[in-house]
User: What shape does this take?
Amino acid sequence: MSGHKMMFSGLKLWTKGRSSHAWINPFHNGRNGRGKASFSTRSPKVCIVGSGPAAFYTAQSLLKARQDVEVDLYERLPVPFGLVRFGVAPDHPEVKGNRSMGVPGEDLAGVYSAKDFVGWYNGLPSCRELSPDLSCETAVILGQGNVALDVARVLLSPIDILKKTDITQPALEALAESRVRRVLVVGRRGPMQVACTIK
Assistant: This one.
């Protein structure tokens, strides 16, 4: 797709200050007045809202069909690729929610679900306001799966390493000030029963 413009922008910027009427009749622009489509010899411009696999497939198909088309992709998340990146399909609702563990103290300040913490450093809009307390030297993670190890890795990785990833700037700044130096990963059983995979 070299030579073609691919733009990632927040939907808030796209919709801010615009009335819903701007979406209803794009042909009614005051010049052709009656809602009739006007055609010109200019290159077509296409806006695709979202940047998941279907958006990229659509953009690729448009660019193959017409080399002069200009395609803009708008995305509300800080990075593209939708479900390919964040991986929770609509038909797996059990993965989306936080499950109560029934552990005394799980609702106390300073206790965060791994789902929310991962969403925070990945820039998910629903987790953007999370402000984890990283002022202590020891963090405890309950669980022995891949997400637990991802959280431990992010908490303990040097900032220079994290800067090379697509972690969000607010998370990077918070982790740069982090005093966490030790992470305990706690599971119900022994090391032979860990639920993580080898990378």
Q: What stands out?
A: Residues 53-65 form the longest helix (13 residues).
